[in-house]
């Protein structure tokens, strides 16, 4: 990542530019992915969502976080924060933008009452840098197809995590 790269709050960026970046980073059919169903109908959290701007003042990456909940078999909703998508333009990948966006987002969490963070991603990568794991998500389900080993969680006290449940939008 260039020395002159800047991270700014995502709500300072034109939403059209964000959508164009997401299309380039993932593909226009990205709305069919399971992660979109998990957060359907909710708005991303401005305090935890950022944009990466390169030295030429171009948008090169974004991260969004969303309010979600894991509903246990008894019907209790356990609020969580869904991290992602973490999106970087293909020609800027491998330059540290994604790591900077992840670190900024997770650093913005309140240390007083941090909710568990959940994501769909590579367990080795997100585990090594930020402590995400799939050790507690084996009994969790999503509203669509997914690879169980890629469902990750990060939590200060894993004892509070339900063993089973369905992840979906927070309706609280």
Give an overview of the whole structure.
This protein is α+β, with helices and mostly antiparallel strands and 172 residues long. It has one domain: Aminopeptidase (3-Layer(aba) Sandwich). It has helices spanning 15-26, 34-38, 97-107, 123-130, and strands at 6-9, 50-53, 59-71, 77-88, 117-120, 139-141, 151-154, 164-169. Strands 1, 2, 3, 4, 5, 6, 7 and 8 form an 8-stranded mixed sheet that branches.
Give a short summary of the structure.
By secondary structure, the chain is an alpha+beta fold. The chain has helices at residues 15-26, 34-38, 97-107, 123-130, and strands at 6-9, 50-53, 59-71, 77-88, 117-120, 139-141, 151-154, 164-169.
The CATH architecture would be: 3-Layer(aba) Sandwich
CATH-defined superfamily? Gcn5-related N-acetyltransferase (GNAT)
Shape: globular
Q: Say what oligomer this is.
A: single chain
Low-pLDDT runs: none
The helix fraction, in percent, is: 10-25%
H and E order: EHHEEEHEHEEE
How many DSSP H or I helices? 4
Q: Over the alpha carbons, how many angstroms does the gyration radius reach?
A: 16 Å
Per the CATH scheme, the topology name is Aminopeptidase
Structural class: alpha+beta
Question: Topology, pairings included?
Answer:
Elements: E1 6-9, H1 15-26, H2 34-38, E2 50-53, E3 59-71, E4 77-88, H3 97-107, E5 117-120, H4 123-130, E6 139-141, E7 151-154, E8 164-169
Parallel strand pairs: 4-5, 6-8
Antiparallel strand pairs: 1-2, 2-3, 3-4, 3-8, 5-7
Task: Give me some keywords for this one.
172 residues; Aminopeptidase; 8-stranded mixed β-sheet; 21% helix; alpha+beta; 8 strands
